[in-house]
């Protein structure tokens, strides 16, 4: 429910009627008392008087406002007259007469607006960034093409031959003819099968590693190299492009030992893997994974 409006106390008929400035002083004192009641009663906050309110908001205040408004209007009129004279000097008499006929009293800044439009129309326009970039476009395009040309070309055999001689690019057909390559029927590299499980990648299976046997030592060495961020595994992986060839002999030796001798259970390598149980301390796989459990003793 909305709060009830406070009723203004009616004056006593026997008391004399208060003036406007006395009421203004009472309202100002009430505001000051509400803002700082302790300081107000202690006398630290000055109290407003009717004379002070009248001097601040009375006839002198209104006269000052009227005087400032008159000065502002006079400045605007002087500026408008100055703009009118400047327009007269910039246009022909016929044009000035036409502008005089279009002038309306509803627009006190008419001549200033006309002067601004005249200066804007006669000012020289600077070329935009797009227009400035059209001139050297051909030169920049040639430079970009020249800069993007490869300096060397790698052949399927692994040899690297220069593709630019004396600042001129050698056509790919010439490079292929010099090294006995057929550009119309390129030779496809037949991928080798995994030496651990015999998996052979087919077309489009370059990243589908789930075809490997989970117990494959080469595949487990590949995963171990990824988890340990091995630099040697990364180098071999870039050279041969894909598992299970992207592993180093050190990781392969560890996984082969686990495949033959069994895993070595122990704590997980990282704290956030504690919920996954024990991990092998040699090949780094979880002992809970069914395919990675240690083989039974013969």
Mean pLDDT across residues = 75
Strand order of the largest sheet: 1-2
Strand content: under 5%
Topology, number of strands:
6
Q: Mind telling me the C-alpha Rg?
A: 47 Å
The stretches of 5 or more residues where confidence is low (pLDDT under 50) are 294-298
The succession of helices and strands, N to C, reads HHHHHHHHEEEEHHHHEE
Helix content: 40-55%
Distance between the termini: 88 Å
**Apparent shape:** elongated
Task: Tell me what the structure shows.
The protein has 298 residues and is mainly α. It folds into 4 domains: 20-57, no CATH class; 60-119, no CATH class; 149-187, no CATH class; 209-292, no CATH class. Helix content is 48%, strand content 5%. The protein contains 12 helices and 6 strands. It has helices at residues 20-35, 37-41, 50-57, 59-90, 93-102, 110-122, 129-134, 137-148, 172-178, 217-227, 231-240, 249-261, and strands at 152-154, 160-162, 164-165, 168-169, 265-266, 279-280. The strands form 3 sheets. Strands 1-2 form a two-stranded antiparallel ribbon. A two-stranded antiparallel sheet has the order 3-4. It has a two-stranded antiparallel ribbon with strand order 5-6. Helix 1 packs across helix 3 (50-57) and helix 3 (50-57) packs parallel to helix 4. The two termini are 88 Å apart.
């Amino acid at each position: 429910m909305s709060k009830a409006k406070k009723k203004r106390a009616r004056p006593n008929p026997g008391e004399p009627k208060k003036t406007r400035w006395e009421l203004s002083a009472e309202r100002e004192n009430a505001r000051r008392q509400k803002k700082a009641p302790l300081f107000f009663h202690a006398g630290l906050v000055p109290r407003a008087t009717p004379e002070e309110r009248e001097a601040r908001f009375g006839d002198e205040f209104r006269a000052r406002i009227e005087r400032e408004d008159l000065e502002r209007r006079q400045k605007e009129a002087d500026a408008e007259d100055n703009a009118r004279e400047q327009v007269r000097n910039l246009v022909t008499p016929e044009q000035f007469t036409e502008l005089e006929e279009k002038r309306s009293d509803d627009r006190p800044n008419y001549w200033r607006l006309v002067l601004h439009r005249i200066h804007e129309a006669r000012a020289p326009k600077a070329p935009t960034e797009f227009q400035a970039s059209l001139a050297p476009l051909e030169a920049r395009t040639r430079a970009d093409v020249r800069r993007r040309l490869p300096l060397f070309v790698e052949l399927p055999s692994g040899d690297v031959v220069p593709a630019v001689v004396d600042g001129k690019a050698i056509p790919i057909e010439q490079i292929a003819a010099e090294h006995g390559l057929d550009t119309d029927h390129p030779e496809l590299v037949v991928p080798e099968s995994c030496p651990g499980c015999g998996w052979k990648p087919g077309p489009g299976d370059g990243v589908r590693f789930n075809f490997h046997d989970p117990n494959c030592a080469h595949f487990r060495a590949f995963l171990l190299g990824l988890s340990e961020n091995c630099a040697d595994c990364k180098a071999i992986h870039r050279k041969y492009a894909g598992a299970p060839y992207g592993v180093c002999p050190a990781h392969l030796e560890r996984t082969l030992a686990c495949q033959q001798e069994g895993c070595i259970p122990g704590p997980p390598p990282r704290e956030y893997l504690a919920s996954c149980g024990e991990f092998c301390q040699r090949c780094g796989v979880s002992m809970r994974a069914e395919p990675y459990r240690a083989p039974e003793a013969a």
